[in-house]
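Cross-posted from the bioinformatics board.
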Amino acid sequence: MSEGGAFSRPGARFDRILGAVVWLAAGGIAAVLIWITGDTLQRGLSEVDIAFLTTEPTDAGRRGGIVSVVVSTLMILAVTLTAAVPLALGTAVFLADVSARWSAAAAVVRWSLDVLAAVPSIVFGLFGNALFCVVLGLGYSILSGGLTLACMVLPVMIRTAEQALRSVPAELRMNAAALGLRRTARLWHIEFPAAVPGMAAGLVLGIGRALAETAALIFTAGYATRMPTSVMDSGRALSVHVYELAMNVPMGDRRAAATATILMILVLCITSAASSLLHRRRIFRRSEA
Amino acid sequence: MIRTESLSVRYGSRTVVRDVSLRLRCGRITAIVGPSGCGKTSFLLALNRMIDLVPGAAVAGRVLFQDVDVFDRRNSIAELRRRVGMIFQKPVPFPLSIRANIQLGLKEHGVRNRRDREAMMEQVLRDVGLWDEVSDRLDCLATKLSGGQQQRLCLARALALDPDVLLLDEPCSALDPVAAACVEKLITELSRNRAIAIVTHNLAQARRIADDLAVFWVRDGSGTVIAQGTAEEIFSRPPCPTVSDYLSGRTG
Ligand SMILES: Nc1ncnc2c1ncn2[C@@H]1O[C@H](COP(=O)(O)OP(=O)(O)OP(=O)(O)O)[C@@H](O)[C@H]1O
Ligand SMILES: [Mg+2]
């Protein structure tokens, strides 16, 4: 401690080591991300042009573009969110708020969610095929695919929404109740708005998982490359298109990389749009006047 | 207007308020004093059933609001809480605009007309002496206000519903002497046609504004009332040494 100056303390070196480790970890993560993005862009970007974005694929995807695939992807995502978001909100409210008096029921729901979260997506594909395509008679369709994905993203969306609701300070709830606000009013005006940032995270995770999914969609939404005209048509998602081009179409790699580029840009756009939309103060203002 | 009959409050197995029979009368201010942790807040929470929201809390005895048992299942809790307003010890504005903070309750209790709501909002903000400070930023977040401003906002928020009974848990704890004097004056005015209970650690304040006084004290591990009556009577002739020591500032 003699050479270290008046303020040096024995533990200071550990602080520095910990700092270095933390920076290394964070830097490593950033490097992996940059590498993946850079590699995909470098191989795919040269193939992307206006025609690629505006024409339908031909010759198994080797020529033409991917417009119908993008449209199918967006439609599948829309079905997924339409089904999953209300269900997730309802269940999250049940788990966070109502379940105090129904702890056995809540335990069953939680347990089911944990199991559901651990199920491999290929199993979801087989299940979705059996239930939506066959039993409910929806066939290979965007609707079947979207509903299957909804089952898949529910656990993460419910858990994040529940966490977000639970982290709303109890004092807010008490203050709202003290003004004679009923439970629904409390939820709608106070707890949901306060929980929105946390819920946005769950939504983004769910969207990310849905856009990334391949296995579950092959058995449910199918892989027709035609432009879908309704949710009852079969439609090929971007991730399925990437898989097909890379694995089953000889000479398809460059097109696969180009499609992957578009998929990444889409993920980036949708997730940042979703989070900025939800973070906007507008939501907080709703209860004004 | 509101009275309790041997009211007890329990958290789990621990009784923190035991056998309190107290009456809050219309047109009078009842000061509730006593050392920290003796159950003043718990007592207030039972009066408008806020205690229902505290996990593990249970109540025994009766609370009668205008001779109706408030724990009767047939009565609307929302309406009870509108008519028996409450300000918490720690002010918590909603993370909404100042305007929304005040108008939310009004809207929920059926004031449909926007102009009416605006007028009522201005009135209560003037009452608590906040209007001049915030009238040009009603759309700003209420959580950005200072602690004292938040406390007055919460008071205004409760006043907007025009309650018959007001339960105030240390409403002046975060206020400077000028704002505190303004709130005290307001409380005195409000008490003309209301029953008001005010918890305070400030005995000088109790002496200034209280008509009635209740002294809480911990006996055998739970809080109970050891003296009650008109403020004048208790301050001038304390019924026991504990009370006289506390009121003269020697203990507590
Ligand atoms: N939610 C709760 N769960 C369990 N115990 C509690 C709870 N709230 C309060 N208590 C206990 O009950 C007793 C009375 O608390 P209370 O808040 O009513 O006191 P108080 O008189 O308001 O004190 P202060 O003057 O400090 O505000 C305290 O000992 C406290 O620890
Ligand atoms: Mg208290």
